[in-house]
Design the sequence.
């Protein structure tokens, strides 16, 4: 009996921390989905760009490259990351809409180049990168909530909120939605396809940067942690149906919680294998994502 | 609507019969209660303005689309639940309005893919030069060559489709459909992209390959070809059969005249 | 169809290529002859590198088969390569069996794993397959490291049994790898003209047309994947034998991506020369540019981009040229 109790004693903590990390996977997945929806490109360079962004913040704030305050380092990195995102899009722009195969190979190429850049500039070091937030925490009914958790939630809500504001309320957002639902018709209507693509690529880069900055404090930053983060974001996107923005956000949270439960109750060592299983099962039984019915595919 | 046919009673066994076919996409009705009765030994023309639903009807017959209502049977076999591949196994083949030859295969090899279902060679002979597999490949090659020859394009056998003019590619598709000795041959705009001479040759070739056990259906905008080739004609407009019967009867039908004059005489 | 532009740039160079098939044949024969006599002339390190190069060429070829006949891309073929390699190593270590028995078993394992992966994914579109293959590649090291009892964990395993006892080790490794590569290329050349090969090519270009001739999509997906995985597994067995060691380090996501790089750079060719180019690039570049190790990802990434963009602009150019016929 006490065994059973012990089994569930940790459940609230697991769910809560799963929710927190899931928000970040959701942000990562959102970037993938925005790019995919508007340009039909599965961006395999997404994780590498996010990794580069986090390394830039580290480089600018730690004295490796510059010795800036955390805030200026983030601002500078944000600018550079967006620039790289624009460049990446410029390179593969001729391949957009060509075929899955072509664009997949091209984004893998970009990912390799970014990866190589990280290795050359920062070496194979493992670094830690903290957020400048006070370290306080409080308990709510056996649940410990830290400043980090609150920061993640606040930032996630802020990011998703502003994204949805842009998409729902601005001209660019309307163009984005039009391009997503029918790229060819919208080109005929004189919408600027390239501008919409740039919007989604830059948003993807920003979302990636934010997610990477927030996730690094819980682990560490090395040129290889990126791949695992990327796989998680991909899984979240698949669970959410790959072309639904709300799906990506919810998918991220589901994956975050599921990973926490799996690592606690089953084994922390087979995380990627677990994600492989999630991807295969989802694609086989819910090819349009788990949330197709619940959330709907629009937006 | 009664199916009237003037000429002597053709073979009724083994007919391809579709009744009450309804098909809609997102609330838009593409086919509205289409009935077809296609007898072996007859060439049927399926005509109608652009967007009338001719290709969609072919897609229903071959199993690429699933009608919302209605049934389709070939002889005693109900086709409704069979996959396109299973229908192909029953001897139903087609050509495509939008050319569907593989650019990686030569024309001859493309035609050989029409024999896939009748070939038995296993995976062993796919990788190793085994005598049986070899003999079978030789045989397939010979039959494919004969089909190309029949349509007068044997000279293009070793070229890849992208190197060929559209007319030759079309004939290649027809050769691929013919090579397996089909029971039902559905041709979607076989003369599109062909010049007048090629069209005449095609009409002759189709006459030559016609035999009493074959059901041939031709969708075509070229009225000369239809009139020369077909024993009966169905006219489709906005997803409905508005007339059917012998070429002469259909030509004289006021409704058909109205549709065709309204839609721009072709 | 746009896929074919990249996948099969030979469409573009087809006619000139056919004009010189004899030349190609002679070149291939010449290369085989040179490779066959090389061991008598060169040092053992070169032989060792070349044996690995042959083994990797088979892996590259397995990816090329998937791209060319399936129109799909996988970045997780390191999984199937590792499966073959570990089958050979584990069977020697735990059962004391040599390559004569473990090689066929490795092939079967690759085939079975390919089926296991392809059957649930038979209806996935290409992008999902790439994502799933990435997960496959990332899960592999975990599995290898944590099934330590069988796989030797981080350390990996050694392979020491000979194929032919009494024959010099370097020599038999080299010739075994070379023979395997040549046989695979011959088999693939034959496959191109087979019923199955042509059916797959049609299914890749026009799945619906293929279906109308009895070639179903799931058959095509499953067959091409099983074939590709079997070849990858064979390559793993050759890698294990040629390098006499296996460890999780050799089978990461990066290796999976590098096989794809080799395949793209060799223009998805399945000929001996194409496979050698692909295998050579991914084996010899890191070995001989060891000093420039950090530049290798950039080099490979640029190669992917350049080949893809060129193939694309090539097809664009072709469209601008005055068409023939008509
Ligand atoms: N897969 C589909 N999804 C949505 N609508 C479709 C689909 N296929 C066909 N339609 C619609 O069905 C209608 C009939 O199309 P269909 O291609 O059958 O016409 P058709 O008679 O073959 O015309 P054409 O002479 O131009 O070839 C068209 O309005 C078309 O837009
Ligand atoms: Mg049509």
Sequence:
């Amino acid at each position: 009996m006490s065994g059973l109790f012990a089994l569930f004693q940790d459940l609230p903590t697991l769910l809560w921390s799963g929710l927190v990390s899931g928000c970040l996977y959701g942000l990562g997945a959102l970037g993938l989905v925005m790019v995919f929806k508007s340009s039909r490109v599965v961006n395999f360079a997404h994780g590498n760009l996010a990794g580069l962004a986090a390394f830039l913040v580290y480089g600018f704030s730690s004295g490796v490259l510059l010795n800036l305050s955390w805030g200026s380092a983030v601002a500078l990195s944000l600018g550079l990351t967006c620039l790289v995102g624009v460049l990446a899009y410029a390179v593969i722009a001729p391949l957009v809409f060509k075929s899955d195969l072509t664009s997949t190979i091209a984004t893998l190429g970009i990912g390799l180049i970014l990866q190589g850049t990280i290795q050359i500039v920062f070496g194979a070091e493992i670094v830690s990168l903290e957020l400048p937030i006070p370290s306080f925490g409080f308990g709510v009914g056996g649940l410990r909530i830290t400043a980090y958790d609150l920061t993640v939630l606040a930032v996630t809500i802020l990011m998703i909120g502003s994204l949805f504001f842009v998409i729902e309320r601005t001209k660019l957002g309307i163009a984005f939605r039009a391009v997503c639902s029918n790229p060819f018709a919208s080109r005929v209507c004189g919408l600027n396809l390239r501008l919409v693509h740039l919007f989604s690529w830059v948003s993807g880069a920003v979302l990636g940067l934010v997610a990477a900055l927030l996730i690094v404090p819980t682990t560490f930053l090395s040129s290889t942690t990126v791949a695992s983060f990327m796989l998680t974001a991909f899984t979240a996107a698949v669970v959410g149906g790959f072309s639904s923005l709300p799906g990506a956000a919810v998918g991220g949270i589901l994956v975050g919680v599921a990973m926490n439960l799996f690592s606690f109750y089953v084994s922390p060592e087979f995380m990627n294998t677990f994600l492989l299983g999630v991807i295969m099962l989802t694609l086989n039984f819910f090819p349009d994502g788990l949330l197709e019915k619940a959330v709907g595919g629009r937006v | 609507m009664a199916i009237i046919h003037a000429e002597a009673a053709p073979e009724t066994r083994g007919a391809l019969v579709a009744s009450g076919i309804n098909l809609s996409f997102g609330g838009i009705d593409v086919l509205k209660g289409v009935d077809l009765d296609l007898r072996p030994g007859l060439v049927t023309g399926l005509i109608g303005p652009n967007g009338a639903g001719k290709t969609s009807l072919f897609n229903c017959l071959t199993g690429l689309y699933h009608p919302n209502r209605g049934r389709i049977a070939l002889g005693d076999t109900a086709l409704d639940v069979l996959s396109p591949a299973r229908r192909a196994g029953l001897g139903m083949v087609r050509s495509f309005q939008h050319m569907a030859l593989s650019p990686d295969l030569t024309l001859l090899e493309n035609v050989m893919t029409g024999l896939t279902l009748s070939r038995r060679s296993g995976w062993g002979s796919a990788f190793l030069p085994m005598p049986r597999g070899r003999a079978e490949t030789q045989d397939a090659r010979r039959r494919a060559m004969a089909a190309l020859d029949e349509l007068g394009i044997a000279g293009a056998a070793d070229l890849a489709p992208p190197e060929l003019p559209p007319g030759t590619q079309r004939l290649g598709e027809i050769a691929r459909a013919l090579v397996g000795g089909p029971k039902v041959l559905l041709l979607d705009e076989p003369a599109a992209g062909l010049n007048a001479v090629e069209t005449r040759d095609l009409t002759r070739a189709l006459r030559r390959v016609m035999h009493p056990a074959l059901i041939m259906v031709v969708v075509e905008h070229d009225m000369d070809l239809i009139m020369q080739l077909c024993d009966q004609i169905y006219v489709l407009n906005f997803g409905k059969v508005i007339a059917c019967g012998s070429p002469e009867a259909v030509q004289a039908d006021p409704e058909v005249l109205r549709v065709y004059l309204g839609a721009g005489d072709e | 169809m746009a896929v074919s532009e990249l996948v099969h740039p030979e469409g573009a160079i087809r006619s000139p290529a056919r004009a010189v098939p004899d030349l190609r044949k002679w070149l291939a024969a010449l290369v085989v002859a040179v490779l066959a006599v090389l061991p008598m002339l060169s040092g053992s390190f070169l032989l060792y590198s070349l044996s690995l190069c042959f083994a990797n060429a088979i892996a590259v070829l397995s990816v090329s088969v998937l791209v060319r006949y399936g129109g799909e891309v996988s970045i997780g073929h390191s999984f199937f390569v590792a499966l073959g390699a570990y089958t050979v190593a584990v069977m020697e270590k735990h059962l004391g069996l040599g390559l004569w028995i473990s090689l066929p078993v490795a092939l079967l394992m690759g085939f079975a794993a390919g089926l296991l992966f392809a059957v649930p994914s038979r209806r996935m579109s290409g992008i999902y397959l790439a994502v799933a293959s990435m997960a496959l590649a990332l899960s592999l090291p975990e599995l290898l490291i944590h099934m330590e009892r069988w796989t030797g964990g981080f350390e990996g395993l050694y392979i020491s049994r000979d194929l032919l006892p009494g024959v010099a080790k370097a020599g038999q490794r080299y010739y075994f790898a070379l023979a395997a590569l040549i046989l695979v290329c011959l088999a693939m050349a034959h496959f191109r003209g087979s019923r199955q090969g042509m059916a797959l090519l049609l299914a890749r270009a026009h799945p619906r047309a293929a279906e109308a001739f009895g070639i179903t999509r799931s058959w095509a997906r499953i067959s091409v994947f099983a074939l590709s995985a079997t070849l990858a597994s064979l390559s793993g067995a050759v890698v294990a034998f040629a390098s006499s060691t296996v460890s999780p380090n050799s089978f990461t996501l990066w290796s999976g991506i590098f096989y794809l790089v080799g395949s793209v750079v060799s223009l998805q060719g399945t000929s001996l020369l194409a496979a050698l180019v692909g295998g050579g690039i991914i084996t010899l570049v890191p070995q001989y540019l060891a000093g420039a190790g950090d530049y290798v990802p950039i080099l490979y990434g640029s190669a992917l981009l350049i080949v893809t963009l060129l193939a694309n602009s090539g097809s664009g150019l072709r469209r601008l040229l005055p068409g023939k016929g008509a």
The longest strand of chain A covers residues 137-140. The two ends of chain A are 48 Å apart (CA to CA). Confidence is low (pLDDT under 50) at residues 293-299 of chain A. Chain A is about 75% helix and 5% strand.
